[in-house]
Amino acid sequence: MSGGGTQNSLRKALGAIKDTTTVSLAKVNSDYKELDIAIVKATNHYERPAREKNIRAIFAAISATRPRADVAYCIHALARRLSRTHNWAVALKTLIVIHRALREVDPTFHEELINYGRSRNHMLNMSHFKDDSSPNAWDYSAWVRTYALFLEERLECFRVLKYDIEMDRPRTKDLDTAELLEQLPALQQLLFRVLGCLPQGAAVHNFVIRFALSMVASESIKIYQAISDGTVNLVDKFFEMQRPDALKALDIYRRSGQQAERLSEFYEVCKSLDVGRGERFIKIEQPPASFLQAMEEYVREAPRSSAVRKDQADKPKEVLAIEYKKTPEEQEKRSPSPPPPEPEKVEKVEEPIVEPPDLLGLNDPVPVASELDEKNALALAIVPVGWRTR
């Protein structure tokens, strides 16, 4: 154990030396030396949260009032810090800077971060990150990867919602069906990443990890509130939905119930770790099982949105008549000529024959075929115009 402790102390000392060297180089070579120094100091190897003055210096460089080139440089510097380090403390503190910027800086930073990810490999992709310097560092690395996934999903949620769930008021209670079916899955996926942020092993007792976890836990309250408001809105519209939308809504409703149960467990663990002091964790209530059964029964009998169009599509004669209208000459060639009149039958006077009433109309005179073709062709040429514009 003493050998492992000595090795760990040596790594920390080397990390401190590296930070000092980086700061010295920034003072000499960088055009953004003040910003570079603030980034290095805010994300150094020391296992404690960054000083607030360094955080504020970074936030000043990425505000909406600064040139976009300055913001782009800051994002690039943070991304470079993440990609080059193998130290869990440096990686975690860099992620904390990004997280706090998303919470405290204007939305233009979100947009710049998304654009940076589109032009390059996403800076928050840390699936291969690991610090194997000690058994504890291994547990810390696992939590760093989970935390990065949460931040990545947070950006994706902003892209879908067009606003930040922490900085702005949730709007899900006022959305229409199409918007709900798009936004609620994004919020539920973000809550899924929240639930994955519970620390394991040595990470449970790490102070810096608990600091980051407290921000995640506080945001989960607004995320769940937005999901709850949206689910109530969705339920109000549910029994008027066509079957495809109703199926999606039912999946959302089911997942909402499952996540509510897991979120209750998440809050209990946070309380036991003394995480989120001062936060009033909301009480999670499960929806009644009877209502879920009613929704499932409705889905089985819900109307299909494409039923009318399918019936119309099953009439090939009408489609052919719409696409191709015969000329009068072709109609005359194709339709048989009417039989010649028989004058002798008309002039001959016979005794009237009493027949039973023709209830089925079998004895009605047969209209001329060419007249029927012409009428049908004209009718079919008119009807589909309205059908197509529906």
UniProtKB/TrEMBL annotation:
The keyword Nucleotide-binding does not apply. CDD domains: ANTH_N. It comes from the Eukaryota. Pfam families: ANTH. GO terms for biological process: clathrin coat assembly; clathrin-dependent endocytosis; vesicle budding from membrane. The lineage of its organism: Eukaryota, Viridiplantae, Streptophyta, Embryophyta, Tracheophyta. Keywords: Coated pit, Cytoplasmic vesicle, Endocytosis, Golgi apparatus, Membrane. Its main location: cytoplasm. GO terms for molecular function: 1-phosphatidylinositol binding; clathrin heavy chain binding; phosphatidylinositol-4,5-bisphosphate binding; SNARE binding. InterPro entries: ANTH_dom, ANTH_dom_sf, ANTH_N_plant, AP180-like, ENTH, ENTH_VHS. The keyword Transcription does not apply. SMART domains: ENTH (SM00273). It is found in: Cytoplasmic vesicle, Clathrin-coated vesicle; Golgi apparatus; Membrane, Clathrin-coated pit. This is ENTH domain-containing protein. It comes from Gossypium raimondii (Peruvian cotton).
